[in-house]
């Protein structure tokens, strides 16, 4: 079975999606791993960055996104098929990366997400609102070495659907007070989720993203995170720190077709940071 990693933070805009995509692309291209990215976020950012808007619209019309999976459970229909919904060989690199697949999200999930609580719990089936994704992927996860789940910035039912199939989670943060503020809450909430469901999900670590070297405040926050780690307070801080760079932002534009990883991420920044982070992640999941 694959190593399943949720990328999560309650704070928006910290780099969850950008890091998920870079990890997936590097794992597939540089490490030869078979990777599935699950876009659990109704904002649909990872989906659009990996397949572009035109293909997403077509998929959405055919009901082959995560929105339809949840809608089927609510309306007792059977339109979603994981087999059909999972898009093979995605990314704007090389016309698609062999071994990098995507389960896409949908903007229509924004309207649906608050209704998921109403999914009927059958007395005969082990189907509850938090196990919808697990049920849908039961015959598919074993095709992959790694599954990366791009979570929305909350711990709602959709996110819990991803957490319940994850063994690990990774917390990207911007090294500032507001982005790091929620870390203890995430760690303790997921600890409680582990205990109450019997699943084992543990923190891989905190990744500092959008780091500005000249900003003494960013450096102080990183030192604080190191201190917390040394005190055993939160969880591990990754050695890799991802600098703020416009290249990380422009890389998410699907229409900017790239020939290879260097064309997309350069030779130095942010390429070296993303490849170093990938190596750390693979080391920690296998430890
Ligand atoms: N290292 C970086 N340097 C500069 N900009 C970055 C970097 N990483 C991400 N960004 C930019 O920051 C913004 C937020 O990134 P991203 O969408 O990955 O965050 P997120 O945590 O997924 O956000 P959300 O919570 O809304 O899903 C985007 O515009 C992205 O291009
Ligand atoms: Mg995102």
Q: Could you characterize the architecture of this molecule?
A:
The chain has 287 residues and is of the alpha/beta class. The chain contains 13 helices and seven strands. Strands 3-2-4-1-5-6-7 form a seven-stranded parallel sheet, sandwiched between helices. Helix 1 packs across helix 2 (45-61) and helix 1 (16-31) packs across helix 13 (271-286). The two termini are 16 Å apart. It binds adenosine-5'-triphosphate (ATP) and magnesium ion. Residues 16-17, 41, 43, 45, 150 line the site of magnesium ion.
Short summary of the structure?
The chain has helices at 16-31, 45-61, 66-75, 82-85, 109-112, 132-136, 157-163, 177-180, 183-197, 216-230, 246-250, 261-265, 271-286; strands at 3-7, 35-39, 100-103, 146-150, 168-173, 202-211, 237-243. With 287 residues, it is of the alpha/beta class. Helix 1 (16-31) packs across helix 13 (271-286).
């Amino acid at each position: 079975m694959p190593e399943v990693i949720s990328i999560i933070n309650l704070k928006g805009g910290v780099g969850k999606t950008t890091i998920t995509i870079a990890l997936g692309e590097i794992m597939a291209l540089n490490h030869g791993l078979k990777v599935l990215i699950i876009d659990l976020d109704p904002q649909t950012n990872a989906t659009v960055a990996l397949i572009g808007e035109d293909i997403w619209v077509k998929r959405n019309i055919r009901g082959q996104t995560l929105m339809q999976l949840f809608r089927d459970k609510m309306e007792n229909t059977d339109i979603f098929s994981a087999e059909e919904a999972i898009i093979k060989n995605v990314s704007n690199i090389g016309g698609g990366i062999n071994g990098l697949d995507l389960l896409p999200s949908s903007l229509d999930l924004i309207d649906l997400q608050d209704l998921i609580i109403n999914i009927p719990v059958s007395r005969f089936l082990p189907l509850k609102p938090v196990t919808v994704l697990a049920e849908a992927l039961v015959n598919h996860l074993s095709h992959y070495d790694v599954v990366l789940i791009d979570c929305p910035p909350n711990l709602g039912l959709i996110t819990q659907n991803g957490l319940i199939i994850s063994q690990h989670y990774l917390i990207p943060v911007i090294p500032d007070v507001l982005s790091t503020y929620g870390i203890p809450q995430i760690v303790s909430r997921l600890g409680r989720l582990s205990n109450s469901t019997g699943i084992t999900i543990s923190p891989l670590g905190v990744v500092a993203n959008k780091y500005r070297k000249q900003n003494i405040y960013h450096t102080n926050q990183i030192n604080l995170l190191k201190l917390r780690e040394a005190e055993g307070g939160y969880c591990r801080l990754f050695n890799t720190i991802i600098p703020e760079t416009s290249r990380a932002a422009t890389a998410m534009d699907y229409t900017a077709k790239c020939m290879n990883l260097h064309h997309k991420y350069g030779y130095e920044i942010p390429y070296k940071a993303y490849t170093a982070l990938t190596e750390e992640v693979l080391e920690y999941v296998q430890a």
